[in-house]
Amino acid sequence: MFAKPVRGRTTADVDGDAVVLLIGMRINHFWAVHQWLPVMLAMFRTLGELARDSTRGLLGHVLMTASPRTYYVVQYWESKEKLYAYASSPDMFHHKVWGIVNSKERAGKVRGHVGLWHEAYVVPEGAYESIYFDMPAFGLAGAHGQVPLERRGRYAKDRFAHRSAKAAGETG
Q1: Is the distance from CB of 137 to CB of 6 less than 8 angstroms?
Q2: Confidence check: pLDDT of 58 > 70
Q3: Are the C-beta atoms of residues 61 and 47 closer than 8 Å to each other?
Q4: The whole model's pTM is what?
């Protein structure tokens, strides 16, 4: 939580595609605490469940807010297959929560007090780059590791052009 910054310029040590999920909630009516607080607590419970089992594929996450009403989590995943497997697994908390939401919606009990959303992205190798200056591992680097900038290229165009050994066809 109180990680020391790494001096100088670094970049994320990602090999291959980057899988990013943005998932969150918007409080539409602040007074309806009984509606939005359980949703917020479910977000934390889901993160806890994933933290206890690293084989599920969550590599890292960052909690964020877009406004006093909107809260979200940026998640970095090992693969889109692991993300989908977690989301659709009947024994996982996320699946149970969506079952409750869907039941309430079918029964006409959703009143619009809280909004839910997510966006998922598979970013192909060569379509992302990062730079961190005097920062601890954060975001993509927090999920995949952090390396000196020179290892991937001093300029953004060089980091975009970086290819992993796998993508370059090398064998190790």
Answers
A1: yes
A2: yes
A3: yes
A4: 0.90
Which structure tokens are listed for 137? 């591992």
Contact, 145 vs 13, CB < 8 A? yes
Query: How far is it, in rounded angstroms, from Cα 138 to Cα 146?
Result: 9
In percent, how much of the chain has pLDDT > 90? 85
Q: For the chain, where are the alpha helices, taking DSSP H only?
A: 33-52, 80-88, 93-106, 140-144, 156-161
Residue range 15-37: average pLDDT? 96
Task: Fill in the DSSP letter of residue 151.
Answer: G
Rg (CA), the chain: 19
CA distances (Å), origin 30, targets 40, 83, 134: 13, 31, 38
Q: Which amino acid is at 41?
A: L
What tokens appear for 10 in the block? 């670094």
Residues 161 and 58: their CA atoms lie apart, in Å, by 26
The average pLDDT across 142-151 equals 94
So what's the pLDDT on residue 171?
52
pLDDT exceeds 70 at position 172 = no
Looking at residue 63, what DSSP letter applies?
E
Q: How far apart are CA 105 and CA 44, in angstroms?
A: 23
